[in-house]
């Protein structure tokens, strides 16, 4: 069930340094359209009445507002780190969101997120006071390395999960958590880490393995393959039906 008040935050103010393209990766072409367009469309299909806050670099010359399918949305100035971009969006909501409203944060760089996962995340969280995130158990042997790339240890993978997005928390809790992390100078790479720093335990919601974060050059063609497989499975429109 989709809650009445659902705020979506999409951090899209990154530079895509590891991708190394001629523009930030959210504007690179994937199956004929910018990555950002795919991501926003998947979110809109799952949560059509949500209100979107889209974090963009203040000097972003590539963005086109016509790409946003949401009726209610606002552009937010991104910050220097992902957490700063998200916190800027939370600040903008200060006089609009209630402390108990759900806020769902999803990287623009994850356009392959499946509709089933978007649905299940909210179903599971309906029973959860703290909130949680899509995640998948680590499936490989984990090595620790030194600065020269030599193995120093094999780590247990017992209980290790990959953190994905969306991550969803109540507005008041998430805002306090990210503020707290900033005040203490703690660098957090996702929302859950900030919540954990308060001594709380976010719920891990097992996700499909195809929620790739486009990060490196080869990820674009991988994402195109994932789209094709998902379209064959159904529930996701095929490239030929995309306008
Ligand atoms: N100051 C920042 C940095 C990142 N992001 C967003 O956070 C998400 C995850 O970040 P990442 O994959 O690291 O993207 P980039 O920062 O663009 O990539 P890189 O680290 O390679 O530069 C992306 O959707 C990115 O646009 C953001 O909104 N504001
Ligand atoms: C939030 C995130 O997608 C969880 O895996 C990820 O941490 C964001 O990427 P970054 O490279 O840490 O900015």
From TrEMBL:
UniProt keyword Transferase, yes or no: yes
This protein's encoding gene: ispD
GO biological process, alphabetically ordered: isopentenyl diphosphate biosynthetic process, methylerythritol 4-phosphate pathway
CDD domains reported for this sequence: CDP-ME_synthetase (cd02516)
EC number from the UniProt entry: 2.7.7.60
Purpose of the protein: Catalyzes the formation of 4-diphosphocytidyl-2-C-methyl-D-erythritol from CTP and 2-C-methyl-D-erythritol 4-phosphate (MEP).
Entry keyword annotation includes Transferase: yes
Entry-linked PANTHER family: 2-C-METHYL-D-ERYTHRITOL 4-PHOSPHATE CYTIDYLYLTRANSFERASE, CHLOROPLASTIC (PTHR32125:SF4)
GO molecular function annotations of the record: 2-C-methyl-D-erythritol 4-phosphate cytidylyltransferase activity
Protein name: 2-C-methyl-D-erythritol 4-phosphate cytidylyltransferase
């Amino acid at each position: 069930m989709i809650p009445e008040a659902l705020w979506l935050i999409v951090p899209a103010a990154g530079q895509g340094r590891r991708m190394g393209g001629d523009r930030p990766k959210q504007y690179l072409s994937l199956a004929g359209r910018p990555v950002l367009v795919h991501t926003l469309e998947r979110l809109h299909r799952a949560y059509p009445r949500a209100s979107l806050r889209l974090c963009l670099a203040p000097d972003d010359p590539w963005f086109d507002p016509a790409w946003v399918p949401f009726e209610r949305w606002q552009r937010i100035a991104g910050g220097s780190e992902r957490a700063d971009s998200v916190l800027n969006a939370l600040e903008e909501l200060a006089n609009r969101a209630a402390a108990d409203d759900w806020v769902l944060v999803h990287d623009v760089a994850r356009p392959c997120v499946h509709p089933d996962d978007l649905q299940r995340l909210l179903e599971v969280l309906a029973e959860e006071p703290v909130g949680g995130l899509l995640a998948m158990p680590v499936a490989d042997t984990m090595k620790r390395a030194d600065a020269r790339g030599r193995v120093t240890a094999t780590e247990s993978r017992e209980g290790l999960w990959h953190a994905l997005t969306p991550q969803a928390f109540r507005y008041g809790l998430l805002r306090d958590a990210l503020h707290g992390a900033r005040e203490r100078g703690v660098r957090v790479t996702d929302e859950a880490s900030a919540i954990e720093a308060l001594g709380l335990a976010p719920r891990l919601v097992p996700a499909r393995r195809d929620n790739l974060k486009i990060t490196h050059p080869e990820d674009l063609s991988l994402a195109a393959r994932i789209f094709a497989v998902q379209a064959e499975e159904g529930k996701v429109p095929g490239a030929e039906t995309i306008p």
